[in-house]
């Protein structure tokens, strides 16, 4: 079952305060490959690895249903 951009956005926005969010479907609309760019005060003081782990954990159910995911 493909993942929608709306589903990803809802999951991210409900978990942390967002300053800027970009979600790009890189699979020509089939919902199998997304790239996300997230800016949030929740990431302040965290290194890149910690930020990526946070997003990966947050979206683990959706990522499991995708072919590819990048941040």
UniProtKB/TrEMBL annotation:
<comment type="similarity">
    <text>Belongs to the BolA/IbaG family.</text>
</comment>
<dbReference type="GO" id="GO:0005634">
    <property type="term" value="C:nucleus"/>
</dbReference>
<protein>
    <recommendedName>
        <fullName>Bola-like protein</fullName>
    </recommendedName>
</protein>
<dbReference type="InterPro" id="IPR002634">
    <property type="entry name" value="BolA"/>
</dbReference>
<dbReference type="GO" id="GO:0005829">
    <property type="term" value="C:cytosol"/>
</dbReference>
<dbReference type="GO" id="GO:0051604">
    <property type="term" value="P:protein maturation"/>
</dbReference>
<dbReference type="GO" id="GO:0051537">
    <property type="term" value="F:2 iron, 2 sulfur cluster binding"/>
</dbReference>
<dbReference type="GO" id="GO:0006879">
    <property type="term" value="P:intracellular iron ion homeostasis"/>
</dbReference>
<dbReference type="Pfam" id="PF01722">
    <property type="entry name" value="BolA"/>
</dbReference>
<dbReference type="InterPro" id="IPR045115">
    <property type="entry name" value="BOL2"/>
</dbReference>
<dbReference type="InterPro" id="IPR036065">
    <property type="entry name" value="BolA-like_sf"/>
</dbReference>
